[in-house]
Amino acid sequence: MKIYGIKTCDAVRKARKFMKEHQIDYTFVDFRETPVGEAEITEWLQKVSIDTLFNNRGTTYRTLKLKDKNLTDEEKAKWLAKENMLIKRPVITFDDQVVVGFNEERYRNLFTK
The domain 2-111: what is its CATH number? Predict the structure, then answer.
């Protein structure tokens, strides 16, 4: 299992805390130290929608003025690879699945059986 995100993100902190409390092993990948490339993003997008993965509410989205560009899904995917801070966090990969965001109930159902 891998958890992707940034250390300062509240949702990432909650996800990591959940895993620690439930003694679930994972590897943490910090976007700032190890950027995620187009190949990985393409792989994720085979399992989750672009709308699930693309963060259009964050500071980076507003700073880059991407709302004005009316991006296609393909363009959004390219932006995710170019600017990892546009990826909703955390992204968890395990057992050929991709889970985006923190939801304690969902985590309990997926990870603690």
Answer: 3.40.30.10
